[in-house]
Amino acid sequence: MTYEQRLRDYEYKKRKLIREFSIQVKGNKRISLGKSTSNLFRHRKNSKSTLNVRNFNKVILVDRKNKIVEAEGMTTYEELVKQTLKYGYTPTVVPELKSITLGGAVTGVGIESSSFKYGLVHETVTEIEVLLGNGSTVLCTPTNEHKDLFFGFPNSYGTLGYALKLKVKIISVKKYVKLTHLKFDNVKKYVKKLQEVCQKKELFDFIDGTIFSKHELYITLGQYTDKALKVSNYKYMNIYYLSIKEKHTDYLTISDYIWRWDADWFWCSKHFGAQNKVLRLLLGKWMLTSKVYWKIRAWNNRYRLAEKLRGVQNVESVIQDVEIPIEHSEEFITFFHKEIGITPIWVCPVQNYNKKVEFELYKMDSSKLYLNFGFWEVIKTTHEDGYYNKRIETKVKELKGKKSLYSTSFYTKKEFWSLYNQKKYDLLKTKYDRNHVFRDLYEKCVTRK
User: Fold this and answer.
1) DSSP H/E element including 442
2) How many domains, in total, are found in the chain?
3) Could you give the C-alpha distances from 77 to 82, 120, 340, 406, in angstroms and in order?
């Protein structure tokens, strides 16, 4: 299929969607997305009116001349990487799970181990076509009449409109990635080394870290290479995060590096028995993917069978990603080990790519390096609902950090809007969704209704 044909197919689907949207809006119903995959970890009653966008999942063009990939909003990164790798490219920042969609990563603040160099996913976007609450679509770029929506779209989580089509920067890659795992037994030295290596952008292509305990911390440095001494494989019987402890140097194909976390959903596969060698041998080729884990988890959220089988009554899901300025990161790690106690922890350095650009709903200090800390666990508790999450939210605020809103939040409305730029959000909401066809950001990310 030619580019023109793919574009015509997209325009046809868009017209059909707008007709469906208009019919639903006339019923004065709140609209939400009907989609095949999700990486949100907050739970509420589903809207009765869902807009089917499942078929907006195609790559339209890999433009090697301008180093851009043009794709529909529900395109998964698995498909996006598959198509760009055919030409020796990948998106500039590729979130770590195959099931994450392009539109979701832009509106929901995606990150990965190239973020120390290129920033967050939305910093790699050059154009977004957005479906608005009045049923029209607008094309947003950094310089056109809708630039306010372009810079306000990240962290809006579909409350200002839905991304139907996007253009994203791509970079050329090599066949392999060489990994070097550096071990530390001291938090202070660990943070200092992370700051040091992140300043050497010309030497490294990827940087992230894994904290197993306060005395066992690793930095993983990734470098493109055309040759590999011995290539490892973590798609089946071997488990990537355990290899970090075992190997100082490792080699992966570029594709296997990108999806190194997907087979075990970082380390959360343990909750599904997928790290059991027998189960892995029998079912591994089917179940070792984030898409399957998500379906199992969604099913369990409905019936709570895992907790019932384990005899656990009172639990709290502590599933968050937070960005902490580098100068406060040692304090956060110390607090987290003492007060929360979850391990492992994923660490991903990030800093703004363009120091002159500001994204209104997720402002970060462009002069600073941040460390993203990701932690995902269900823990027993005797406290009230949200006890541990609230402690983390308070600490993040105290340390002038940011919390990603893909998971459950416990902020009061006043606290929330003091952190997420209510003034600018209200202006955008009034301009682009005056009739509140979509939930507002607080309703979407905090309330359970």
Assistant:
1) helix 441-445
2) 2
3) 8, 15, 32, 17
